[in-house]
Design brief:
The chain is an alpha+beta fold. 38% of the residues lie in helices and 19% in strands. It contains five helices and ten strands; from the N terminus they run αααβββββααβββββ. It has helices spanning 2-17, 22-65, 88-94, 148-154, 158-161; strands at 96-97, 103-104, 125-127, 132-133, 135-142, 165-175, 180-183, 187-188, 197-199, 202-203. A three-stranded antiparallel β-sheet has the order 4-3-9, with no helix packed on it. Strands 5-6-7 form a three-stranded antiparallel β-sheet, with no helix packed on it. It is elongated, with a radius of gyration of 45 Å. The model is unreliable at 42-47, 80-84 and 89-94 (pLDDT under 50).
Length: 204
């Protein structure tokens, strides 16, 4: 076992640790010559690259100095969309706000964009059930005999609706084609789960 280890160590020293013989030294010199030649070729390539850059600069100068070269100004595009007469409605739509929360109220309650701070009643209501705008009438309430067919057949014609409207100061009558309410004081729309009314957005 010890003899085998000695032989292995001797072989390792002979291959990797001993000074190369004359033939091997000559091979190393050849390798040095090849490396020097490669370095020379690299230097030539670099020198040639510099001349190529000079040539490219000369070509660019010739193009710009050529009288036939059209110097047209660049059209710089703005990030903001251009407004055309046909797109005015889209711009207006982009600057509209919704009530949150939506309030109903009597005639003494101011209309506008309702918020938790500014409790205004919404006058842009729309029904998602019948897809009809909700009409409101200040200082009126609906008669108790009103039914679905009455509003279905008569909305939004005020002359026909008057038959079931009762004058009452401070109240406000709301109606679409499928629902109706008489409101006396400020009320959060969420409190009435049966109504399918939403804010249809207000112009700022």
């Amino acid at each position: 076992m010890a003899d085998e280890l000695d032989r292995l160590l001797d072989e390792v020293e002979r291959r990797f640790c001993l000074v190369p013989e004359q033939g091997e030294a000559g091979g190393d010199q050849n390798d040095d010559r090849e490396r020097a030649a490669a370095a020379g070729r690299s230097a030539k390539v670099l020198t040639g690259a510099g001349s190529d850059e000079d040539d490219i600069d000369d070509i660019i100068d010739e193009i710009f100095n050529d009288s036939s070269f059209a110097r047209t100004p660049l059209n710089l595009k703005s990030n903001s969309p251009s407004v055309t007469p046909g797109s005015n409605s889209a711009v207006v739509q982009a600057h509209r706000k919704r009530c949150c929360p939506v309030y109903l109220g009597g005639s003494s309650s101011p209309n506008g964009i309702g918020t938790n701070i500014s409790k205004r009643t919404c006058d842009q209501l729309r029904c998602t059930a019948c897809d009809f705008r909700v009409s409101l009438f200040n200082d009126y309430i609906w008669d108790q005999s009103c039914d679905y067919l009455f509003f279905r057949n008569n909305m939004p014609e005020l002359n026909k609706l008057r038959a079931k409207m009762i004058k009452k100061k401070g109240s406000r009558a709301y109606a679409c084609q499928c629902s109706w309410r008489s409101i006396d004081e400020l009320t959060d729309l969420q409190a009435d789960q049966q109504l399918r009314w939403v804010c249809g957005k207000h112009a700022e």
